[in-house]
Amino acid sequence: MADKLSDIAPDDVDLRTDVPHPARVYDYMLGGTANFAADRAAAANLERRVPHAATSMRANRKFMLRVVRRLAAEYGIRQFLDIGAGLPTSPNLHEVVQSVAPESRVVYVDNDPLVLLQARTLLSGDSAGRIAFIDADLREPEAILAGPRLRDTLDLDRPVALTLIAVLQFIQDDKQVRDIIGRLLEPLVSGSVLALSAIALDGSAAVVSGAVDSYRSDGMPIKARTSDELARFFDGLDLIDPGVVRVNRWHPDEDAAAVPDDHVYMFGGAAIKP
Ligand SMILES: C[S@@+](CC[C@H](N)C(=O)[O-])C[C@H]1O[C@@H](n2cnc3c(N)ncnc32)[C@H](O)[C@@H]1O
Q: What is the mean pLDDT of residues 134-150?
């Protein structure tokens, strides 16, 4: 499937299928088909170092789905800005929140061109006009916020949930992360939400360091932080219970509760802009 996708990529889009990409490695680990040999080799390298990596990634994905469902169902959030969205993987964020409130709007942002190419399949039918995809970089918040597609889809006079799920580890510098989050939250009204997750060292430092080494050696530098460092990214916001926790521990359903803690290397949380 992915090999066919590379055939239909527009001439001006270079998918760089010769090197691994985080979105495609993650897609492969989740059982998807939007990946290439270089991604599968990187995934194999990761699994050699971190045998439970796929469990951790699935737990992260399900955390994201529980967070957005809760934000839609209990906090009345109807707009979502998901940066570092990844390749479409069912169920997608918009499917979950639109199952709670069909009028919900979602803007997906990613800097892997394959995400945009794959996303075309989602932009038809019922969701037309209520979801948008933007090919942009988290490190350029103003370009994301000012884009016409975002402004056509989201009303910034109403609360927005900004979701940064499993993406912050790709930005090494804490100050840069704080700056990006501040710039993205600045135009959002009170009642807006920041939800994030990232790889964390707590309780699994040796295994997580193995993951960091594996990604680095495959040309995808990542940084592992502690949960306390992740919690600081919420400074100035009102953390929703239970705070920043291992992702399987955030309002777990039966499925999440059954996942062993020592197979999960991601921490996350959500907080409200006062
Ligand atoms: C591990 S995946 C997570 C996907 C999804 N958020 C999830 O948790 O299921 C990380 C995603 O972040 C994207 N990404 C990495 N750095 C980025 C950047 N600087 N700007 C935008 N997207 C980025 C990758 O392309 C990839 O799709």
A: 95
